[in-house]
Amino acid sequence: MFNVFKLILVQKKVTILGGGESGAGAAILAKSKGFEVFLSDKGQLHQKYADILNKENIPFEQGQHSEERILASDLVVKSPGIPDKVPLIVALKEKGILVISEIEFASRYTDAKLIAITGSNGKTTTTLLTYHLLKTAGLNVGLAGNIGDSFAWAVAEKQFEYYVLEISSFQLDNIIDFHPYISLLLNITPDHLDRYGYDFQNYVDSKFNIIRNQQASDYFIYYKESEVIQKELEKRNPAVGRIEVSLDNALEAGSYLENGTLVSKINGNALEIAFAELPVKGPHNAINALSAISVAQLLGIDPEKIREGLKSFTNAPHRLEQVEVIGGVTYINDSKATNVDSVFYALGSFDQPVILIAGGVDKGNDYSQIEALVKSKVKGLIVLGKDPVKLETYFAGKVPQIYATDDVRDAVNKGREWGVPGDVVLLSPACASFDLFKNYEDRGDQFKAAVRNLTQ
């Protein structure tokens, strides 16, 4: 580690690629450490970040990349949204210029204990819940990463003893020495395959970077029933201390669900709480809750404090969010479900008949994972997107009725037409949103507005 710090100290010119939250934060941290900083964004900066960079006297450009200037850098901190295969990144690496992620850069300037959370699904809920449990127990803890707040920005301006970090595979792609004290891997299912050459193993390798630098004195919390995770652990056999989370097995040491009760036995501490007492529902949220409880247990938080925190938690929007009950039909916004695995868990959360609204930009989805659930639970499929063919073709003859539209209001109206008291109209798209919407939040917000318009 000393050699890495020595390397960074002699690097003077730092270029930040990407001027969003992580990029602006990295620029502020770099300036605070005395580097000559330049930020470059091929798109247009949000005015908020342009104003901040101007205030901090950090030079930047937008609408282009000045390659000659960037290729003269000693170090480049790259936005997670920029793939490694773009020509500029390839050119940097060919020249031997170190390209790292913001989380890697920030981690070099903090002594805080890092709790890093990743997975194809459930990252945000688990991160928010873990942070909530630690915060309400009185720990000096920060929240950052993929959840929206820049880790580097927090490191530059605040002093926390712990950080709870939501970490995406894109952020893990460009780490070198990033070293969590506790890492969590909730699941690995096919996602972002377009970014990983349509090779699932590449995506798996990216996720497993989270334990790359962990040691025997660190902890790795993972979902025991994930065949992908188990296979990789057998292959890699990492030295890190392992904590299992299970929905199917009572564990002598670990956290599990048994007869509707969340049970955690870690480091001699025991905790039990009825899952029904928590504000989050569904089997996927049992995994998320058990994972967060495991972190709190490892940090020695009093069990009663953990119970209090679990009961007072409020989840982020767009995750199985109940919007309204109209005419006995419940409308659920699960717009964050941008892959098939998320929809699997969403459908598993309901016993009522479901009218499913799905569709958008397909990321190489395999719908066989949800075929049985769709056949048994879905009374109607509404395909919302510019290209409905794949979903229509796959589920033709497997659901009683299918309707395609590119208008969210039309989709909601069709759900109302098909619904009867006791039904659930579920927006759980399995796809990205950018064919019709700015992002999944915009999709969820428009869905909620359309539902609430039904009551007017």
Automatic annotation (TrEMBL):
The keyword Kinase does not apply. Its EC number is 6.3.2.9. The gene is murD. Residues 117-296 form the Mur ligase central domain. Cell wall formation. Catalyzes the addition of glutamate to the nucleotide precursor UDP-N-acetylmuramoyl-L-alanine (UMA). It is found in: Cytoplasm. ATP binds at residues 119-125. GO terms for cellular component: cytoplasm. Residues 318-431 form the Mur ligase C-terminal domain. Transmembrane segments: none annotated. It catalyses: UDP-N-acetyl-alpha-D-muramoyl-L-alanine + D-glutamate + ATP = UDP-N-acetyl-alpha-D-muramoyl-L-alanyl-D-glutamate + ADP + phosphate + H(+). Pathway: Cell wall biogenesis; peptidoglycan biosynthesis. This is UDP-N-acetylmuramoylalanine--D-glutamate ligase. It comes from the Bacteria. The lineage of its organism: Bacteria, Pseudomonadati, Bacteroidota, Cytophagia, Cytophagales. It comes from Dyadobacter fermentans (strain ATCC 700827 / DSM 18053 / CIP 107007 / KCTC 52180 / NS114). Belongs to the MurCDEF family. Pfam families: Mur_ligase_C, Mur_ligase_M, MurD-like_N. One of its GO terms (molecular function) is UDP-N-acetylmuramoylalanine-D-glutamate ligase activity.
